[in-house]
Amino acid sequence: MDLDNRTAVVTGAATGIGRAIALELAEKGANVVVGDVTEEPTLEWEGDQTTVERVRAVGPEARFVETDVSDSDDATVLVDSAASEFGGVDILVNNAGVTTDGAVDETSLEEWRRVQSVNVDGIYHCSRAAAPHLRENDSGRIINIASQRGLLGGATDRKAAYCASKGAAVQLSRQMAVDYGPDSITVNAICPGPVESNMTDLAEEETFIRDNIVTPYIGRPEDIGHVAAFLASDEARYITGHALVVDGGYLVT
């Protein structure tokens, strides 16, 4: 899975799953542009180094662009900066995401729109900006990070806004695969299950998770990173429109 001389834009890559994806792409040789609202990692085990610093330690080049993916101008600046600095964009990973709790009648319109604007509009803004660049090569890749909750519904209750946004991300990925396939751009969604990250509080959920997966271990961000690197590679050139579940068997229990 050689990604030498390719450029990847990864949103929400300062920490958690996005950081792991960025590092795995770098391990395979890709230059990485990190788009996030902050540059600092938030998970205890990630240490003090930023994602950009970690990527550069691996070997490829990297840069950080402060980005709110819900803002179309920010998304355009992110993608165009990557194309300008590295001569193009080969891989876009739409990872940035937020969540909230509440049934429909418990979710304010402001919170509903916040979740949709990041989790769905963010994919739209970044993909719209990246498409012209991705068309310039014969191995363009768009990888959207959805969730098993976009397929199953809430594993726990009161996740209306989040489940709606991730279901939309899955369906948008399928339609984008149809639209961009003739341009040799593959579009796939990854649907993570329980993963130790900034969206999963193991202190509260570990017992529930262990009772509902079939593996003896809970996933870590790098488990999603490995899958993203595969989908970004030439080895995955015939895979498109797929929602790949990475969940330790949660959906089969």
Automatic annotation (TrEMBL):
Domain Ketoreductase as annotated: residue spans: 6-193
Listed GO MF terms: oxidoreductase activity, acting on the CH-OH group of donors, NAD or NADP as acceptor
One Pfam family matching this protein: adh_short_C2
InterPro entries hit by this protein: KR_dom (IPR057326), NAD(P)-bd_dom_sf (IPR036291), SDR_fam (IPR002347)
Stored CDD domains: SDR_c (cd05233)
SMART domains associated with the record: PKS_KR (SM00822)
Family, as annotated: Belongs to the short-chain dehydrogenases/reductases (SDR) family.
PANTHER family assigned to the protein according to its UniProt record, in alphabetical order: SHORT-CHAIN DEHYDROGENASES/REDUCTASES FAMILY MEMBER
Name the UniProt record assigns to this protein: Short-chain dehydrogenase/reductase SDR
Organism of origin: Halosimplex carlsbadense 2-9-1
Lineage, uppermost ranks: Archaea, Methanobacteriati, Methanobacteriota, Stenosarchaea group, Halobacteria
